[in-house]
Fold:
Amino acid sequence: MEFFEWIGLGRLIEDSLALNVEVMPYLVTFIIGGVLYLACLVFGGIGLFVMARRAGIGGRWQAFVPFVNTMYTGKLAGDSNLFGKRVKRAGLYAMIAELTYAAMYVFYLVLIVTLDPYYTKVSTSGIYDIYDYVNVPEGLMWMRRAVDVCEPIMYVLLLAQVFAFVTLYVAFFRKYYARSPLLMTVISVILPLRGFVLFAVRNNTPVDYEAYLRERYGRYQAPPDGGSRPPEQPDPFGDFSSSPGRSSGSSSGAGEDPFSEFSPHEGNDD
Structure:
């Protein structure tokens, strides 16, 4: 969930500004992270809403609801492909993985915020200070032990969420940004920018990815004048290219530049 990633950024900003909030620990962290997350949620909701309206999918209010909007993205993406097997509910599975990780993360945040007064420097190793929980009251020792248990569990849940999200968003961007679905998936899953990416591709025309590939690589066939052309292999990194060379026809909309509306030279293909 992007909220936790924005919280991490908020913590960095708080530390860099040397802000010390005595009333409530991490107050500035949560404010900064919350504002950035709300902006991402609104932009992503608008993007999903526009795409759902064009596709004639109902329940468009779901585009603005955390967690539910992940499942709603699956409705737009359609079936996903996992190791050659068709997955019909990738959005639902991604939402469950996201909910599970978020619940564990919230529990972990409660633990570390409660124990924050006891988190102090215990020694120095070279240029690094070593911190640990010191003088924790007996009644809170279960929290101290829970912190150590939660951390490895959270890593496992995070990997499960990333796996589910990759499965979902590869299918989504194959449909709405066939030019570079893997690149857009990495940006959306690894970075907390999913909402802004969804907003950027909101006007793209959905395409059949297999048909798009057949048309894209049609230029490797023999030229129409009957001459011969030496065989060429497709660029193995072409999926990350920003301008792979588009064919006319049904692929229009597959490679629409989501940021073209900000360019003075070209507009949307729609």
